[in-house]
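Worked example

This section walks through a single chain of length 162. The input is the sequence exactly as stored; nothing has been trimmed or padded.
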Amino acid sequence: MGKLIDIVKQKFASECISSHEQHGDETVIVKKEKIREIMAWLKSDESTKFNFLIDLTAVDYSEYEGRGAPRFEVVYHLYSLSLNHRLRVKVGVDEKDCIVDSLVPVWIGADWYEREVWDMYGIKFDGHPNLKRLLLYEEFEGHPLRKDYPINKRQPLIGPEN
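Given that input, the structure is written out below as tokens.
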């Protein structure tokens, strides 16, 4: 396994569900209950120094129902400017408990990423300071990047306020 995967597994053995390395990209899948603690450690520890949250997104795996894993994954891409390494961290999010801790307290830049994931997938971020729609208007019904979103759905019309 990769060096970063080994570091994470050594510190958070009971929180690591799985990991893999492919083409030099290291990925670790962790339990969502400890995501804020794990990420804060990855940011501050001298061996990792992940001071840059490159991206945060989600994936809807509803088409793969028999895979035995949660419907959604929230995917975090981290980078260390000083150590020049990157790591992908994933957490599974079940449709019935569609919430994960916000990382805004760790990286302020997570703010808009989390709002985008909420807007498009309906995954809530506990502790987010302003979780509201980012790309769509507030009256929009549903979350359009969910695989079960009806593509012909009519949305409420809104007009200029007078």
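What to look for: The mean pLDDT is 93.
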